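ligand=zinc ion
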Amino acid sequence: MADCLFCGIVNGDVKGEVVYQDSSVVAFKDIKPKAPVHLLIVPRKHIATLLDVEEGDKGLFGDIFFAANKLAGDHGISQDGFRVVFNCGEGAGQSVFHIHLHLLGGRAMTWPPG
Ligand code: 5GP
Ligand code: ZN
């Protein structure tokens, strides 16, 4: 989608520190990490928010979570625990409207989140 930052990273027009990609998802380091490991896992397909997910996208979310599983292992955070988050809408803190799963780890997490 034109003017979408994460579509730009997916198609290579915008620089991103890509750590994983396959036919359906791309993962890259968050530019302002909130934890020692902070990755964003995005579908190649532009989907703005969780509310825009369609029936045909259901498999894609398996791909996103499977990538999170693999990346948690590859980045050494699977043993100590990690967090995965979709912010949905501005009120929840979403600032980039191309859906992305945050994968955070490498420090203790508190609950509930702010
Ligand atoms: P949200 O607030 O939408 O849930 O998460 C957006 C995330 O994207 C934020 O954690 C922010 O630091 C990250 N971000 C914003 N702009 C860029 C960018 O240009 N490159 C990368 N790698 N991350 C970005
Ligand atoms: Zn996009």
